[in-house]
Amino acid sequence: MRVFSLARLTSRERYVIGLLRGADPGSASGGLLALFDRLRTTAGELGFRPGPLTGAYASRQELCLLGCIAAMQRENPGVLLKISGAIRTPTLACARRLAFEGVHLNHASISRLSGMIDACKELSVSTAPLLQVRPRSQRRPLPPMPESLQEKALAFVCSRGIASSRDLAALGVSRQVVSLMFKQGLLVRVRTGVYRAASDLKRG
Questions:
Q1: Could you report the per-residue pLDDT of 184-202, keeping only the tens digit for each?
Q2: Considering the entire predicted model, what is its pTM?
Q3: C-alpha count within 13 angstroms, C-beta hemisphere, residue 198
Protein backbone atom coordinates (compact mmCIF):
# COMPACT_ATOMS: atom_id res chain seq x y z
CA MET A 1 0.00 0.00 0.00
CA ARG A 2 1.36 3.40 -0.95
CA VAL A 3 1.13 5.31 2.28
CA PHE A 4 4.29 7.37 2.66
CA SER A 5 6.50 9.02 0.08
CA LEU A 6 10.15 8.05 0.38
CA ALA A 7 10.99 11.66 -0.42
CA ARG A 8 9.69 12.58 3.04
CA LEU A 9 12.11 10.24 4.78
CA THR A 10 15.68 11.04 5.76
CA SER A 11 18.53 9.67 3.67
CA ARG A 12 19.32 7.13 6.40
CA GLU A 13 15.70 5.97 6.53
CA ARG A 14 15.65 5.56 2.74
CA TYR A 15 18.90 3.62 3.01
CA VAL A 16 17.34 1.17 5.49
CA ILE A 17 14.13 0.85 3.46
CA GLY A 18 16.31 -0.07 0.49
CA LEU A 19 18.04 -2.76 2.53
CA LEU A 20 14.65 -4.11 3.63
CA ARG A 21 13.75 -4.42 -0.05
CA GLY A 22 16.95 -6.26 -0.90
CA ALA A 23 18.82 -3.39 -2.52
CA ASP A 24 22.61 -3.31 -2.54
CA PRO A 25 23.58 0.36 -2.17
CA GLY A 26 27.24 -0.44 -2.76
CA SER A 27 28.37 1.15 0.49
CA ALA A 28 26.86 -1.63 2.61
CA SER A 29 29.05 -4.44 3.88
CA GLY A 30 28.37 -8.03 2.98
CA GLY A 31 27.59 -8.77 6.61
CA LEU A 32 24.91 -6.08 6.73
CA LEU A 33 23.29 -7.32 3.54
CA ALA A 34 23.21 -10.87 4.92
CA LEU A 35 21.54 -9.70 8.13
CA PHE A 36 18.85 -7.85 6.21
CA ASP A 37 18.32 -10.89 3.99
CA ARG A 38 17.66 -12.89 7.15
CA LEU A 39 15.29 -10.25 8.53
CA ARG A 40 13.40 -10.05 5.25
CA THR A 41 13.05 -13.83 5.10
CA THR A 42 11.89 -14.12 8.71
CA ALA A 43 9.44 -11.23 8.36
CA GLY A 44 8.22 -12.74 5.09
CA GLU A 45 7.09 -15.81 6.99
CA LEU A 46 4.81 -13.49 8.97
CA GLY A 47 3.41 -11.86 5.85
CA PHE A 48 5.90 -9.05 5.19
CA ARG A 49 5.98 -7.98 1.57
CA PRO A 50 8.71 -5.48 0.68
CA GLY A 51 8.04 -2.86 -1.94
CA PRO A 52 9.76 -2.84 -5.34
CA LEU A 53 13.36 -1.66 -5.40
CA THR A 54 12.43 1.42 -7.41
CA GLY A 55 9.15 2.09 -5.59
CA ALA A 56 8.63 5.71 -4.52
CA TYR A 57 6.42 4.89 -1.54
CA ALA A 58 6.96 2.98 1.70
CA SER A 59 4.36 0.52 2.91
CA ARG A 60 3.06 0.40 6.46
CA GLN A 61 4.91 -2.85 7.05
CA GLU A 62 8.18 -1.31 5.86
CA LEU A 63 7.68 1.69 8.15
CA CYS A 64 6.93 -0.69 11.02
CA LEU A 65 10.21 -2.56 10.55
CA LEU A 66 12.05 0.74 10.13
CA GLY A 67 10.67 1.90 13.49
CA CYS A 68 11.53 -1.42 15.13
CA ILE A 69 15.14 -1.15 13.98
CA ALA A 70 15.31 2.43 15.27
CA ALA A 71 13.89 1.35 18.64
CA MET A 72 16.40 -1.49 18.87
CA GLN A 73 19.21 1.04 18.58
CA ARG A 74 18.06 2.54 21.92
CA GLU A 75 19.24 1.25 25.29
CA ASN A 76 15.80 0.12 26.48
CA PRO A 77 13.65 -0.64 23.42
CA GLY A 78 11.01 -2.31 25.62
CA VAL A 79 9.97 1.16 26.78
CA LEU A 80 8.95 1.99 23.23
CA LEU A 81 7.50 -1.22 21.83
CA LYS A 82 7.42 -4.99 22.17
CA ILE A 83 8.82 -7.21 19.45
CA SER A 84 7.95 -10.85 19.95
CA GLY A 85 8.56 -14.09 18.16
CA ALA A 86 11.27 -14.96 15.69
CA ILE A 87 11.48 -11.45 14.25
CA ARG A 88 13.13 -9.94 17.33
CA THR A 89 16.57 -11.52 16.92
CA PRO A 90 17.19 -10.52 13.27
CA THR A 91 15.79 -7.04 13.93
CA LEU A 92 18.21 -6.54 16.81
CA ALA A 93 21.10 -7.85 14.72
CA CYS A 94 20.32 -5.39 11.91
CA ALA A 95 20.00 -2.50 14.37
CA ARG A 96 23.34 -3.26 15.99
CA ARG A 97 25.16 -3.70 12.69
CA LEU A 98 23.74 -0.43 11.34
CA ALA A 99 24.91 1.37 14.48
CA PHE A 100 28.33 -0.27 14.14
CA GLU A 101 28.56 1.04 10.58
CA GLY A 102 27.53 4.53 11.67
CA VAL A 103 23.89 4.48 10.56
CA HIS A 104 21.78 5.77 13.45
CA LEU A 105 18.05 6.25 12.93
CA ASN A 106 16.32 9.17 14.63
CA HIS A 107 13.30 9.14 16.93
CA ALA A 108 10.91 10.09 14.12
CA SER A 109 11.21 6.55 12.80
CA ILE A 110 9.78 5.31 16.11
CA SER A 111 7.13 8.02 16.53
CA ARG A 112 5.68 7.11 13.15
CA LEU A 113 4.65 3.72 14.55
CA SER A 114 1.68 5.35 16.28
CA GLY A 115 -0.14 5.23 12.95
CA MET A 116 0.99 1.73 12.04
CA ILE A 117 -0.64 -0.33 14.82
CA ASP A 118 -2.42 -2.86 12.59
CA ALA A 119 0.54 -3.32 10.25
CA CYS A 120 2.84 -3.87 13.22
CA LYS A 121 0.49 -6.46 14.72
CA GLU A 122 0.81 -8.43 11.49
CA LEU A 123 4.54 -8.67 12.21
CA SER A 124 4.14 -9.60 15.91
CA VAL A 125 5.03 -6.09 17.05
CA SER A 126 3.04 -4.29 19.73
CA THR A 127 3.22 -0.50 19.92
CA ALA A 128 1.01 -0.32 23.02
CA PRO A 129 3.75 1.01 25.35
CA LEU A 130 4.37 3.90 22.96
CA LEU A 131 0.73 4.93 22.90
CA GLN A 132 -0.36 3.96 26.38
CA VAL A 133 -2.07 6.62 28.45
CA ARG A 134 -2.32 6.01 32.17
CA PRO A 135 -5.92 5.06 33.06
CA ARG A 136 -7.66 7.19 35.67
CA SER A 137 -8.22 4.10 37.81
CA GLN A 138 -4.52 3.47 38.31
CA ARG A 139 -2.82 4.28 41.56
CA ARG A 140 -1.06 7.55 42.06
CA PRO A 141 2.38 7.36 40.40
CA LEU A 142 5.34 7.04 42.71
CA PRO A 143 7.61 10.10 42.72
CA PRO A 144 11.09 9.62 41.24
CA MET A 145 14.10 8.84 43.40
CA PRO A 146 15.72 11.86 45.07
CA GLU A 147 18.52 13.48 43.06
CA SER A 148 17.77 11.26 40.06
CA LEU A 149 17.56 12.46 36.47
CA GLN A 150 13.82 11.82 36.55
CA GLU A 151 13.44 14.07 39.61
CA LYS A 152 15.42 16.79 37.85
CA ALA A 153 13.24 16.46 34.75
CA LEU A 154 10.01 16.47 36.75
CA ALA A 155 11.03 19.58 38.71
CA PHE A 156 11.85 21.32 35.43
CA VAL A 157 8.47 20.46 33.91
CA CYS A 158 6.63 21.56 37.07
CA SER A 159 8.44 24.89 37.07
CA ARG A 160 7.60 25.50 33.41
CA GLY A 161 4.05 24.19 33.43
CA ILE A 162 4.70 22.36 30.18
CA ALA A 163 7.95 21.40 28.47
CA SER A 164 8.89 19.89 25.15
CA SER A 165 11.16 16.91 24.64
CA ARG A 166 13.61 19.36 23.07
CA ASP A 167 13.60 21.48 26.25
CA LEU A 168 14.29 18.36 28.30
CA ALA A 169 17.03 17.23 25.93
CA ALA A 170 18.79 20.57 26.49
CA LEU A 171 18.65 19.73 30.20
CA GLY A 172 20.35 16.40 29.52
CA VAL A 173 17.19 14.28 29.64
CA SER A 174 16.98 11.87 26.71
CA ARG A 175 13.82 11.00 24.80
CA GLN A 176 14.11 7.51 26.24
CA VAL A 177 13.88 8.84 29.80
CA VAL A 178 10.94 11.05 28.83
CA SER A 179 9.15 8.04 27.30
CA LEU A 180 9.75 6.03 30.46
CA MET A 181 8.39 8.84 32.66
CA PHE A 182 5.32 9.03 30.43
CA LYS A 183 4.78 5.28 30.73
CA GLN A 184 5.16 5.45 34.51
CA GLY A 185 2.54 8.19 34.72
CA LEU A 186 4.95 10.89 35.88
CA LEU A 187 4.35 12.95 32.74
CA VAL A 188 1.18 13.53 30.74
CA ARG A 189 1.37 14.19 27.02
CA VAL A 190 -0.25 17.49 26.06
CA ARG A 191 0.49 17.03 22.37
CA THR A 192 3.21 15.35 20.35
CA GLY A 193 6.54 16.06 22.02
CA VAL A 194 5.08 18.31 24.74
CA TYR A 195 4.45 17.20 28.33
CA ARG A 196 3.16 18.39 31.70
CA ALA A 197 3.58 16.85 35.13
CA ALA A 198 0.90 14.45 36.36
CA SER A 199 -1.73 16.24 38.45
CA ASP A 200 -1.21 13.88 41.39
CA LEU A 201 2.44 14.87 41.60
CA LYS A 202 1.77 18.57 41.23
CA ARG A 203 -0.51 18.38 44.24
CA GLY A 204 2.46 16.96 46.15
A1: 888 988 888 899 988 766 5
A2: 0.62
A3: 22
